[in-house]
Write a structure and sequence with these properties.
By secondary structure, this protein is mainly alpha-helical. It has 5 helices and 2 strands. It folds into 2 domains: about 35 residues, no CATH class; about 50 residues, no CATH class. It is about 40% helix and about 5% strand. Helix 1 runs antiparallel to helix 2. The N and C termini lie far apart (about 55 Å).
């Protein structure tokens, strides 16, 4: 195998020892090109995790990076019942009551 740019990038990440992970990474690198390999698409648009609200009660947070408010489910942590926040006012009202974005696990 030639020691091209992909070889050097992959070996720097996966180490000098040959492995299946390294071989797969080498193939992917050569497919997309060394300049593009290892660049995450999520980092370019801010990622989904950054665009969705966190479960903290900080009222000064922004709802979405791009596109404004999107309807989503909120859950009562005491009962586990879900309600849909169709507009920002619904979301703010439920947030003040302590509702979260993650469905609570059922207690056995």
């Amino acid at each position: 195998m030639p020691k091209d740019a992909c070889y050097h990038k992959v070996v720097s990440r996966y180490g000098p020892k040959t492995s299946a992970y390294r071989s797969g990474a080498m193939a992917k690198c050569r497919k997309v090109g060394a300049a593009n390999w290892g660049n995450s698409k999520k980092k370019e648009d801010g990622g989904l995790a950054r665009s969705i609200l966190s479960d903290t009660s900080d009222s000064s947070r922004t709802l979405m990076k791009k596109g404004g408010f999107k309807p989503h489910m909120m859950y009562d942590p005491k009962t586990g019942k879900g309600y849909k926040a169709n507009v920002k006012a619904d979301h703010d009202r439920m947030d003040k009551k302590g509702y979260t974005h993650r469905k609570p696990k059922k207690k056995k």
